[in-house]
Amino acid sequence: MPTLLEDFLSRDTSRVLHATWEIIRSRDEAQLDALLPHIAQIRTATEGLDMGGMLRSNAGNVDHAIAKLESYRGRECWCASYPGMDQYEPAKEQDRGHIRIISASEPGWSMSYVCECTVCGGVFNVEQGDHHVMWWKWVPRGEKRRRAH
Questions:
Q1: What domain of life is recorded for the organism (predicted)?
Q2: DSSP 8-class letter at 120
Q3: Phi/psi at 137 (nearest 5 deg)?
Q4: Alpha carbon 136 to chain centroid distance?
């Protein structure tokens, strides 16, 4: 089975997208640590690659995965990634144990949440919207904290 690094460097869009989403969803330190020395190489290999995408470019997801690796290298908490991408659904993040939903507005297509990171306690206001696809805008309410190691 190919490694995530091999997938990123393959220039095969399906493999690159697989590695991208593995990183976006990951909190596995060993998995991420293995990629840290190769961030520049990953960026070069994926730069200019036609990643496709119907309503939005998948290249933005690749950029976000690289930004998450850089944030992780800088020892920022996992939640530092939330404002950089509008596809982190609060309910799914809570199901994964990553955040706790403190409050939510009445259910509907346009909702708002207050969420707390289960690692550092950082609190976010989250706005949910829908324009062809559902999205979530994460706005930190206070300072970002460093994750413990």
A1: Bacteria
A2: T
A3: -105, 115
A4: 12
Q: Hey, what long-range contacts does 49-54 have (CB within 8 A, 24 or more apart)?
A: 49/11, 49/13, 49/16, 50/13, 51/13, 51/16, 51/17, 52/13
Angle (nearest 5°) at CA 40 between 82 and 81? 5
Per the CB < 8 A criterion, the answer to whether 133 and 55 are in contact is yes
Q: How far apart are CA 78 and CA 98, in angstroms?
A: 8
The model's pTM is 0.85
In order along the chain (149 residues), what is the average pLDDT of each group of 10 residues? Answer: 94 96 95 97 94 80 96 94 94 96 86 94 94 90 59
Token duo for residue 46: 């994926």
Cα 72 to Cα 69: distance, rounded to the nearest angstrom: 5
**Beta partners for 137?**
127
pLDDT of 52: 81
CB 79 within 8 A of CB 99: yes
CA-nearest of 87, 71, 104 to 138 is 87
**Which residue pairs from 99-108 have beta carbons closer than 8 angstroms and sit at least 24 positions apart in sequence?**
99/124
Both tokens assigned to 127: 């706005």
CA 80 to centroid of chain Cα atoms: 9
What is the residue whose two structure tokens read 């696809």?
133
